Amino acid sequence: MIENTSKKVLPVITALAVVCLVIGLFVVSHRLAFVKGLAFGTIFSLLKWMLMERAIRKSMDLPPEKVVVYIQFRYLIRYMLTGVVLAVAAMQPSINLYATIIGILLPMPAVYIAKAIYKDHI
Hints:
Elements lengths: L1 H26 L3 H29 L4 H28 L5 H9 L1 H12 L4
């Protein structure tokens, strides 16, 4: 079930990134920085989604008393990585921070769009 969800959501994240890229190329003045930032954020979002999927899959095999600690620790790791990615984007002038944030936030609308497209439980 989890793999099925990823097969539906990951392409939607990628498609949303392409849409944001096309729109951004018309709106921003520093296009290369925007492209780098959007790519950086989107790639990180895809990685974070896969890390979350792997954590959920592994938690299914753990004893109930260890699941909460395991999931909380993986959650903490994902958000620490998000902080590192945002810090790198903020400190690197060749990467657009706002585009990175857009890329990081893409999974949220992607889940709703995938649910609307596939009309079933994702």
